[in-house]
Write a structure and sequence with these properties.
Distance between the termini: 36 Å
Number of domains: 2
CATH topology of the largest domain: Aspartate Aminotransferase, domain 2
Number of strands: 15
Radius of gyration: 21 Å
Bound molecules: pyridoxal-5'-phosphate
CATH class of the largest domain: Alpha Beta
Strand order of the largest sheet: 4-10-9-8-7-5-6
CATH architecture of the largest domain: 3-Layer(aba) Sandwich
Largest sheet: 7 strands, mixed
Length: 394
Amino acid sequence: MSDTLMKTYNRIPLTFVKGEGAYLYDENGKQYLDAVGGIAVCCLGHAHPAVTQALCTQAATLVHTSNIYQIPLQEELANRLTKVAGMDRVFFGNSGAEANEAAIKLARLYGHTKGIDTPQIIVTEKSFHGRTMATLSATGNRKVQAGFEPLVQGFLRVPYNDLDSIRKIADNNKNVVAILVEPIQGEGGVNIPDADYLKGIREICDQNGWLMMLDEIQTGMGRTGQWFGYQHSGARPDVMTIAKALGNGVPIGACMAQGEAADIFSAGKHGSTFGGNPLACAAALAVINTLENENLIKASANTGKAIVNGFKEALAGVEGVSEVRGQGMIIGVELDRPCGALVQQAIEDGILINVTADNVIRLLPALNLTSDQANNLVSTVSKLIKQFLSEQAV
Ligand code: PLP
């Protein structure tokens, strides 16, 4: 491996040279069923012809101009996204962290327009919002923050899935302007809150004039079996951030807003050189078209349910398996012990999985996974889990 890359990643010594649908292929031609999907990015799988064609056509026509000019593809994408998301306006950036930066800036500006000079945003424990200074400060994981102090001020932390602790802050703090939360915590361990959690947050925000801001970077674009995670609860946020699957691998992120929040930014308050350029927007439009044309939101719900049920059946009564959970195609199998070693064992069996929060096997496969592929995923990963737990017991 090259010495000229900064050492920000402990990379697995595996190189992929080709992708097709749910499969990746290494240098030796070995096939891997990909249940990582670039960490919730490749919602259509690899090399989907609709995205490939959109990219080739657009690259041959016009890759980039600038946000100082009109960009019709960006407007078309904003029109399509606002419709499926129930939002009014969109700002385009290039990543999840940038989308959240936009949301954080928007919330602060909202506060200042209300005469709050030191606006504060409520965030949660075990959250992940990105690696920029503001987003790592918002993140509820000390490992992500350590060494980067002083952190950005203005975040108040509460436990996830705990409405009472938010209510307590509401009683005592007049500087809060927003809550930023994930509908399901992805990096934090596929943590699915109670069914009334987002509704409760919506109510508290309404009562206090706070913005409800959802980080749907991992849960958006059909991942959970709805276009967006919030749609399971009906609690529509004021601000929502997306990225990851939006471009199926082409970097693009967005901060969307509705109602009063949609009119907070005025010219000069935020910007991005690359954000929403014609190439990225062409890819994202192809993603939206394909999700619709191939009925993949429903497929995500159904296949995800089958996978969760498959794991529940295969792992029933297995000591060491704490919980199987999931919503659509974000699936977690929690063990009672660290299980990072499973990643390598799965690679040997031709399956790519991810372990997060030390002890949660996280699966984020393409939404168009076939039932044969889903069955293979369940049987191979269940076998590996049982093997891993039995070896540990010896
Ligand atoms: N928010 C959530 C919920 C995420 O899962 C991630 C990435 O894992 C991010 C934000 C950061 O996105 P990016 O890596 O594109 O900056």
